[in-house]
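dumping these here so i dont lose them again. two proteins, back to back, each one seq then structure tokens. dont judge the mess
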Amino acid sequence: MSEFETIIVERGGGIVTVTMNRPARKNAVNRTMLLELTAVLRDVRSAVDDRVLVLTGAGGDFCSGADLTDGLGSSTPGLDTMRDTADLALALHRLPKPTIAKVAGVAAGMGANLALGCDLIVASDAARFSQIFTRRALSVDCGGSWLLPRLIGLHKAKELAFFADVVDASEAERLGIVNRVVPADRLDGFVADWAARLAAGPPIALSLTKTMLNSGLATSMDQALEDEARAQAVNFASADIVEAMAAFVEKREPDFRGHQT
């Protein structure tokens, strides 16, 4: 269990579940949560036994965005605070391990973009998403200006950002914002299954795949092929590929450890 003030961190079976825990404020991010989330992401990055991260919220909501009653959401938060917000977005984006956003209820503003920053998003059928910033006379932050156009295209991203409309779970799935929508009573089990499958996967290959996919839109075909060649060279030098071949021959599930030979 966690000793943090605003988040709960639980570990088991290679899965780290980080729960934003301010349910009375729909898990709105205050400065303490901002720093605690960044700190735990850095811990997960360096922890060998942490294979996959699940980000979620307490009390039936994901995250309603920045807490406008706190210094983080004030009208003059200051460049330092916004740089701390950028540090969080980058820590999530650069985490070399798979991440899943488990979204129930509202995911708005900064909260929506924390979800978008994860590799996969699974939402309950009661989930709602909004780029709420312009309703508060703010512009998009926490990486939304970079993430949203890449997920749904520039013109649709502008529509959601300009009008700040609420998008329900089915529309979010249609737009490609989320990977799956499941009934609320199946959300925990579905995410647990995906997380377990990722945690059992080959850590080196998954990390390299994530890195290449993240950089692919800004990379030429020539460079992408060179990156793939280098990644496969790393994979062929790992103990995981030996284990994969042995498991195939022996007709068993592989036991990947993420080690080099």
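---- next one ----
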Amino acid sequence: MKLTTTIASLAIGLASIIPLSAVAADQTINVGSTPTGMPFTYLDPATNTIQGIMVDLIDAIGKDVGFTPKINAITFASLISSLQTKRIDIISAAMVKTPERAKIVSFSDPLLAYGEGLVVRDEDQKQYTAFKDMQGMTIGIQLGTAYVAPAEKSGAFKEIKQYDSSANMLKDLQNKRVDAVLLDYPIAKKTLAQPSFSGMHLVESYKPVIVRNVGLVVRKDDQKRLDTLNQSIKKLQDNGTIRKILEKWGLDPDIKVVADPS
């Protein structure tokens, strides 16, 4: 009896000094990612799973911190509401940081930065540089993205059509339902390389209106998780892990993050 009591007491004592990270090593965290944002996040038909840059990044961070990301496919426009209602605990997608978003959610330190690209049909060879060059055009923009507000504010467009996915926008551009589309430059570049999206091109003369940082996103009251993610991001930047992931997906790892807009 004394031996049993001693062993039980020892077990309790050891449990009290085991680091929390070790206890949570197999913890599963719900992560929201979009199925339509190649190369950042997209549905791989071969595996029926979400893959991409942001999946690789959250996988690496999870391995470092000690959790397993469970990737949930969610439309871009529903990511923040899913986070706020606790359907997910982290957003890992091509969500740029804006002052408006920063008021309601918290962004991690930047993982990368990029701006929007302008796509037109191949028969349109005009060298657009800004919205003022597109007076009277009908343009497509993905619903919920940061590109909607400046396009509306410009007053340049006859109509702004909003879409749930970049693929649907590009199909409408092919079918001449819109004159041009604005979407994340890396997504546009990767998508247009697919044969099914032929007959369109990125306008290289166009200058992005918005260049923003991309990081992970958590709820405003989730400071402990945010601190943990930031510590891991710094570690993985310092040891070259993030650079390797960006290079794997054809992104420039040396692009400079911009000043914090919030």
